[in-house]
Amino acid sequence: MAHRSGRHFLQIPGPTNVPDRVLRAMDRPTIDHRGPEFQTLGREVLEGVKPVFGTAGSVIIYPASGTGAWEAAIVNTLSPGDRVLMFETGHFATLWRNLAQRFGIECVFVPGDWRHGVPPDAVEQHLREDRDHTIKAVMVVHNETSTGVTSRVPLVRRAIDAAGHPALLLVDTISSLGSIDYRHDEWGVDVTVAGSQKGLMLPPGLSFNAISDKALAASKTNRLPRSYWDWEDMLKPNATGFFPYTPATNLLYGLKEAVAMLMEEGLENVFARHDRHAEATRRAVRGWGLEVLCAEPAEYSGSLTAVMMPDGHDADALRRVILERFDMSLGAGLGRLAGKVFRIGHLGDFNDLALLGTLTGVEMGLSAAGVPHRKGGVEAAMAYLEAGDAKQMAAD
Amino acid sequence: MAHRSGRHFLQIPGPTNVPDRVLRAMDRPTIDHRGPEFQTLGREVLEGVKPVFGTAGSVIIYPASGTGAWEAAIVNTLSPGDRVLMFETGHFATLWRNLAQRFGIECVFVPGDWRHGVPPDAVEQHLREDRDHTIKAVMVVHNETSTGVTSRVPLVRRAIDAAGHPALLLVDTISSLGSIDYRHDEWGVDVTVAGSQKGLMLPPGLSFNAISDKALAASKTNRLPRSYWDWEDMLKPNATGFFPYTPATNLLYGLKEAVAMLMEEGLENVFARHDRHAEATRRAVRGWGLEVLCAEPAEYSGSLTAVMMPDGHDADALRRVILERFDMSLGAGLGRLAGKVFRIGHLGDFNDLALLGTLTGVEMGLSAAGVPHRKGGVEAAMAYLEAGDAKQMAAD
Amino acid sequence: MAHRSGRHFLQIPGPTNVPDRVLRAMDRPTIDHRGPEFQTLGREVLEGVKPVFGTAGSVIIYPASGTGAWEAAIVNTLSPGDRVLMFETGHFATLWRNLAQRFGIECVFVPGDWRHGVPPDAVEQHLREDRDHTIKAVMVVHNETSTGVTSRVPLVRRAIDAAGHPALLLVDTISSLGSIDYRHDEWGVDVTVAGSQKGLMLPPGLSFNAISDKALAASKTNRLPRSYWDWEDMLKPNATGFFPYTPATNLLYGLKEAVAMLMEEGLENVFARHDRHAEATRRAVRGWGLEVLCAEPAEYSGSLTAVMMPDGHDADALRRVILERFDMSLGAGLGRLAGKVFRIGHLGDFNDLALLGTLTGVEMGLSAAGVPHRKGGVEAAMAYLEAGDAKQMAAD
Amino acid sequence: MAHRSGRHFLQIPGPTNVPDRVLRAMDRPTIDHRGPEFQTLGREVLEGVKPVFGTAGSVIIYPASGTGAWEAAIVNTLSPGDRVLMFETGHFATLWRNLAQRFGIECVFVPGDWRHGVPPDAVEQHLREDRDHTIKAVMVVHNETSTGVTSRVPLVRRAIDAAGHPALLLVDTISSLGSIDYRHDEWGVDVTVAGSQKGLMLPPGLSFNAISDKALAASKTNRLPRSYWDWEDMLKPNATGFFPYTPATNLLYGLKEAVAMLMEEGLENVFARHDRHAEATRRAVRGWGLEVLCAEPAEYSGSLTAVMMPDGHDADALRRVILERFDMSLGAGLGRLAGKVFRIGHLGDFNDLALLGTLTGVEMGLSAAGVPHRKGGVEAAMAYLEAGDAKQMAAD
């Protein structure tokens, strides 16, 4: 690649722009993973991530991508032939279903239009109808990275409870954790799946399972073979700060720093910042006369916005123009949305001016690619950010 | 300082945003400055910087700030009591004059309005009147960092020649080198003064003197004491890649990388990029209904734009609001312009979206600070960048 | 931890001392793993690692520790109830056996004394006796990290061939790859398991499966469920430089640099260097009057040396003293060797003076910990290194 | 340069091995040197360095090499024609004399044998004889980097006082500060000159003047022209954390970290560590049957040891062999000692095993280069370090 002046705008919905503090924290010699210095680190990160998940319980850290944590959630809790309830909220829900099927899980996969989240009433209805409790788990993607739709996990929880059903609740927070309000304990989630490369602002390479006592109990009796992903193998050495096999030490250095950054900013502020940037982005989208994919305002995502292309225009052609001319990466439409939407990531280490730089890139790209649109998207976003900011200042 | 999410926008006219490639190049152990590995490095940087200055002659590299290179230019060429011709183009011309006076130089300092560059006809006139050639040097700040005005050095050269005057031509390119077209040899400059922290994209800590044979000859007979800045002491070990005292090795690592980046992009493209960003910025300024300080279009600066505040509004209050709310640093008005202008740096490692992020910060800041202005600046900049980009694409 | 002056000596047998070049290569922003810049990187690393494995075939790269690559080798080739032949060469052979058993593999685990490698004649005998070819794989740990014994894979291959047995050959090279001569294709290995944090000089977090056509064929019909580790899912996107899920991008940056370093030095030189350092270490051990654990000179390890403690002396007490007084980490005795041996890692990014610094730390540590020994170990190592060096110089 | 495995041993007496903590601290974007974040940094470093100098007064920080700080000490305190008293303790004393002469200072330069420090009685005698107080300053190199001899500054102070002479005391601590006990205030030093690249563990590029009230008073009336080095220009903005011209911001990041490291270790421990390593080195030298250049035990240097070559053997040939074979840089003999001594730096970020690695390199190098010597140097050093360590442990 020829040299390009300036910093690339990485506005896919993850991996996100890794902040210098995290990169520098990782840029240190690896240490003995069985020595006392590591032990201190191990304890710090194992304890430190808990509030990010909203849990007082255990969080397992894998040297793996998020897909590995998906697999871990399944192989530790389910058995071949088990039924699970899932909803087709988008590409990643579909992929998780596919993964589960590989392990012999029978998936009740309720079709969806990829513009809505998990419908709580459908959860309740399916579970009520499952009188024999053959459904062992409800598996929900909290924030569908392919669509920018955030399912309302508390309502899913309430639906399960209303149905009086004992199913486990497994939730994928890969693109929500550290960006969108999430509470493992309070919402009664049994396994929370997460990854390092989104709201946690790390490079990819770590993934997580936060686990409830109920999930842990399930892992004692379920019948899927496992070793790398085995919770019990992990929990034992974790108790003293160690890991059963070589951990990804340098990513743990980064994790410690990333958690510190989230705590310094304050999780509530982190979530509010993401919400504000998401709303500014949606106003820009409407300013351009385009449509946000997410059809339900209560399910708008704080971490990304998927934008629908006008008929007859290819999102990938637009993305290519924007990458070439403005050195910005946007997310592609995935699966059945290929070519039909592009996705703007506004999560992780981000601020107002970077968001607006992003939106100017989209606005100019729409012109450059000959996509019909109105001007004024950036202006609408600025107007919102100014006002929101003014309101916040007044409240201080 | 509390943690702020996202990357700071450092849009002062230098130090500029140091690119990761340069930071990473510097992030290496220091080596023996008398050993063979250093020798290779020394030769590479001493040779490598020459095209950036547009010279085939010697470039001296000091472990020092630009102010040191100002001093070096003087103590190597002039003697106490010498007269020099200078023009009050702004704050830095004034500071350089002050520095020269400290060394007993008598400065003919032609007053100016801080909105224009060096007037070539005045150069010619002053030199013609100096029949006894008591003026030993004409000292010009190529790009006045305090005003965003770029003096036309080729016209100054022509004026000196037209007057048939033997004065040396000393030029400060601290905020132009690597950003604005500059040619030490072709323009007949005798000493070019430069620093590392602007167009060269390095942290501060290196500065430069590119020197002509005529300047070198002057250094053999002038009468100012010197040691650290002495050219002759430098040139001898430089011939084999070494330095007379410990050089700033890690900054030299960065210099090698920065020169490589400039060459990869191509100096002509670098200058064109700066011009394009400067024009976009001026269009934004006019879109806001504000005035660019530089009064002469032929002297617009490619590296920064100074913007005049409406009467009764304080530029520093505006800058404070922008720093607090939008995490962006802008340049203050200096000297007699304090509070009356703010300066937008658009030099160094930069691109369209970062420029537009910068301009959105100014536009929102004007609102937030209650500075009367029109909306539409950012839009005007986008329109220009799109069009300019389209033109460039057409030309490809 | 209180500040300690100077650089820690990380002389465990991995993770190894990550060189600055690799750390700096990783210290860069993560890029879009679906974009063209990543594609170039993906192709480079997928192609670049092949010569390190001595293969022209495919190498799978996992975002995982070596344990994951162990699991991958099994779940892609074997089925529940399959029999495999393994040898108790040490702790890691035992752990791999345990892992296989978790997946329902029946392990013929031939007992060993932890001082020898895999006996080729026993391989042949077991396979000859297996007339029905119920044994599906021979699983060998090339270099036993727990003992410093290197099994002779070419002899194992010859034994399998001599028995005319169709078993797959799976080899763990976690602590040999990039340190000890290894040839996946030439030696007819079917699956080579490797990790990033030893001879490859990277932090932990990547692991590898190099696979033969025969192994790939086995993966088409075997019956272990898998998703994260699935070769076929990997190979398809790998063909164009991509990965089926988010790869550990920053570790791939490091991998590219590490492979470049190995190639610059030359693999033959890399192996010779490790052999030379291993021999120097053994001479030191004998100089101290202590015994090397490895009982067979033809099986001495190039990457680490396990040293037996005199009876009645605790290796962990010695290691603690050395860590506290001399800031050096040594490897512990593992499993049945706990407390009885300590292990000196001399692999990865290493040189003569660092090795000797290491050996001085052991020699002084023996004194400090009151372990009976003779002086003269370091001197013997120096004598060998000087002479070996002289020989090499003469040969140049 | 071809790739060499392992870390280079940089054992010249500065620049020293820059620790990762310092490199990483510097590896951050440059900030606005006129903004509030810089102000905090400026205050921290200006205050933080004071205890390292042993002063409660002002320390000036220059973006320059140590040579610049030499010049600064002179141009701020002396006037052309002033007489100063200096002693020929080695190469750097000679260079400082030369520099002073450039500025018209008349140097009484008492000859020396380059094996002793400044003789306090000679100081007293010269000053007593200077009844008219024509000598304006006594200029002393605390630790002669060219010889490894440390002059006893407290005795020099006492000599000046005994003579009742008002001369200023200027001391160069370039290779002692942060390594050898030094107390600006307590010893009544007027200007302390220092640099960043030795005991301060930074890359080169910063230098220092710690100044007494008496020195400051002298600067108000002395008659050497100056601007870059002017104390008064510095002190004014320093009072609020700023600098009169662009400071070397990234080196200041490093300075903050380096000072933190010195404080964490404790200055007394830092000095004791250097002394201990110096004694171990001298024992090694004697073990080899070679001679330490420093002839006076009370003047042994804690930061480096200069070793005399046997007659007829060239130190530079030895150094070349050691660099080529063992990848270690040692210091050359300078000036009249060229080829006759080599210098071992044992200062800065260093520890026992790195020192012993260094000494093994020298011992093997002596063999490789055919320099007559005895074995046993390394062994003697080990014996000392063990014992010293045991003593320290006993004391704990």
UniProtKB/TrEMBL annotation, chains A, B, C, D:
Checking InterPro entries in the record gives: Aminotrans_V_dom, PyrdxlP-dep_Trfase, PyrdxlP-dep_Trfase_major, PyrdxlP-dep_Trfase_small, SP_NH2Trfase/AEP_transaminase
CDD domains hit by this protein: AGAT_like (cd06451)
In terms of superkingdom, the source organism counts as Bacteria
Where does the Aminotransferase class V domain start and stop, copy by copy? 10-317
Gene3D superfamilies xrefs: Aspartate Aminotransferase, domain 1, Type I PLP-dependent aspartate aminotransferase-like (Major domain)
User: Which cofactors?
Assistant: pyridoxal 5'-phosphate
One Pfam family recorded for the sequence: Aminotran_5
Q: What is a GO molecular function of this protein?
A: transaminase activity
Q: Which family does it belong to?
A: Belongs to the class-V pyridoxal-phosphate-dependent aminotransferase family.
List the protein's name.
Aminotransferase class V-fold PLP-dependent enzyme
Identify the species of origin: Azospirillum oleiclasticum
